[in-house]
Each structure stands twice: as structure tokens, then as C-alpha cells.
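Task card 7
Instruction: Convert sequence to C-alpha cells.
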Amino acid sequence: MISSAAPMQLKLARWTAAACAGALAMHASAGIFDDEEARRAILDLRQKVETMRRDTDQKMAEEARRQTEEVAALRRSLLDLQNQLESSNSELAKVRGQNEQLGRDLSEAQRRVTEANKVLDERLRKFEPSKISYEGAEFVVEPQEKRAFEQAMVSFRKGDFEVALAGLVDFVARYPQSGYANAALFWLGNAQFVGKDYKGAMATFQKLLSQDSKYVRVPEALLAIANCQLELKDSAGARKTLENLIAEHPRSEAADAAKDRVSRLK
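Output:
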């Protein structure tokens, strides 16, 4: 039994070995096939990764280039803006300087206009009527009228009675309705009296009284008439004139002088 079983065992062992060898061969073949697929897969993956890397690098390069261009454009814009700002500041400073100069020019022009207006007003004033107050009365006089009276009075105060007389005679003739008319007659009478034209002086004073009996110098005119009468040796007339003065203007200084003269008349 032992001898017959041995061959069978040997065959079985051989068959088992062959099967194992075949299995090993098949297993080896399957292993080789799997590694090749894996390598191809890895290669494909590497190729895709490389392609993706190149695409990414290209896109990044393009993006970097685009951003560089945008930054450069932005810098140019900022530089242009800065230049415009500096130019605007320069123009603004220039305009401010011009405005300041214009302000100074305007002030100077206004000053000149003001001075010119003053000069013009002064010149026009010489040709325009003006309202004045003289011896308690207010009236309007023409420039030449005022000048003529004042010039005559300047001569009178200086003692140049002949010039004053001529000026007053001319004034009375030219401006009979003047606000100075009463004063002109009064001082004309005094100039005539100084010149010893007593009759002329008395006539002038009498004209003054008939022209305005309320003139402030009427008491003095009455006293002057009495003086003329005394110079003309008319003592009776002088007394009557002095008595009228005292009666009509008792509180005047001329009345006090009249009282003294009446007391000395014979």
C-alpha cells in the first residue's frame, strides 16, 4: 500500500507544483500589466500637471504683465495729476497775485477818483450858488456875488476906502436883490462918510432904512445919519434923528451913544 500510494503522491505533488507555477506565472503577468497602467496614469497625470503649471505660469505672467501695465498707467496718471495740481497751484498763486495787484490798483483808482471828485466839487462850488448865513440872515448867493462883496470888505478892513467904495458901488448896482444888499449899503455909507461925502453917505443910509427897517444895523445907520447931519451943520436934524433912535431902539448900543450926543448938543 505504501508503494502504490507513492506515485500518486508524486503525481499530486507534480500537479500541484505545476498549478502553483502556472498561478505564479499568471500572477506575475498580472503584476506586470498593473505597473504599466500605473506608469501610464502617472505619466498622464504628470503631463496634465505640467500642462496646468504651464497654463498657470502663462496666466500669472499675463496677469503680472497686465498689472504692471496698469500700475505704470496709474503712475503716469498720478504724475499727470500731480503736474496738473502743481500747475493749478502755480496758476492759483498767479491769480492771487493778480487779484492782490488788482485790489491795490482798485484802491489807488478809488483814491484818485475820490480826490478828483473833491477837486471837481471844489471847482464846481466856485460856479454854483451856495447858502450862507450872514448877520443873522440866511440866503443863497452866486459865487461871483459872494466874491465881489468879500473883496470889497477886505479892502474896507484894510483901510483902502477908495477901493472899497468903488467895489461897494459896483456891488449895489449889480446885485440890488442880493442877501448882502443891506450890508453893502451900510458899509458903502460908511466908506462915503470916511471920504467926507456926507450928503452921499446920508442918502445911502436913508436908502437902507427905506429898504429894510428891520435890518440889524438900523440903529447904527440912524446914528450914522445923525453924524452926517452934524457934519453938515444940521444940529436940529441930528437931534431929531438921535431922539428917534433912542425912542425906537432904546436897548441898542447906538441908543447909548445917541443919549451922550444929545446931552452935548446945544
